Batch of 2 targets.
Target 1
Amino acid sequence: MPVSLSFAPSDICNSNQEEVGFTVQEGRVSILDRAVGDIYYDRAVNMKDIVYFARWFNRQEEMDAAQEQAADVWFDRTLDVKDLSALAQLLNSSLEPTSGLPLSSLTASEPYQVTVSDCRVDADGNAFFTVSGANCPGIAAFRFQLKLPEGYVVTDVQPDNSLPEVGNFSYNVETGIVSWYSSQTEVVNGELFTVSVHTEREIPLFGTLDLSYDSSDFFQAGSYTQVPVLVVPGSLTGEPAARTTDVSVVDDTLHVTVETNSSQTVCLIAASYTGNRMEQALLQQVELQSGTHTYVLPGNLRRGWDSLRIFLLDQNQIPLSELYLQKSN
């Protein structure tokens, strides 16, 4: 029966309580002077490592024994494309966002500006947006994590055909991380990639489309000089929608809970019935706030009703929703 070891990275450290890199392979535990994948050796596993590795394959960089050990991400004691692929998967498995330079320190010509386009969700819950670059001084890599409004899932991510070394573009479905690299510095302006999203919510939420990133992932090949980056978020919007989710009567006063994806003015009508005969109608213009909120209609319901119908109408008197409430005995 094989014997395995379980561990946490923090369990192996030096006398200064600094974590020490190591690998666990069949028959041996190897202590490293760096983390697995930290080929560039800046005490972090980031896009510099995969660019350095790709350049090593092209004989544009050299590696010492410690770097070669860190580059053996596949753990088979040889360096080949399996390690490059494994390193790409490792980089797409997690991302620790770091803040870029303060906006006050950037001039219009300094940062590489990455813009997320605005988009609208359609009646089927689908939307797509593009991510574009401008003022690129030349970079060798990028890596972003997609940040979407609640309730949306990514259905597809496609690189633009004009992206250099497009075969090095990848997307991790589980983590939402998009990455790309080249063995040389490239000017990447214009559309970088397109993201398709979908929501199953009856009332689609609106919000910000953003990208988180590690600022060290933007640099030039060879010199590894960091390039400042500025991300401009986009907005996801659509047709305003609202629905009544709950109705309660407290001391003959009507409390109506409404879910909406935007602030809007509606006409709220409550009609009480005895059998098929309408007994009373309460009408109120209400300023809905985005989200789910409860609104109290002025006036009291007359006693004796056995059912209620709640109507929401927009400013053009178009019905938004209807809810029926049967009085419990």
Target 2
Amino acid sequence: MNAPPDEQIDNFYSAVGRRVKVARTSANMTQLELSKQTGLTRSSIANLEAGRQRVQIHVLALIAGCLSIDPSDLIADTFAVSRQGLPSPVNDDLERYSTTARSFVEAGLRTSRISESKESA
């Protein structure tokens, strides 16, 4: 499977950053306060929110915890994931779960495909 274009990956991180910013401001938290709680620098938070800095999944989970939200809320629907090509049992099982849970699994599947493509390149 081909890796998504760089623009699509950039758009993914921009969308994640926007969601972090919305969640942070909804929690009435400044970038500095979030940086102190996560151990990241304030400039890292700013860069992440602007989509200029990619974030590792464990850091995203830490940020979500500090903001009292589910990590999947930060990545849900950031990729327009096509279910074509998913094994039928996986696709059928996804229908039983909430939209947020489905989006989280689909984003994880998409991310694993990106990693597989890079490894085979």
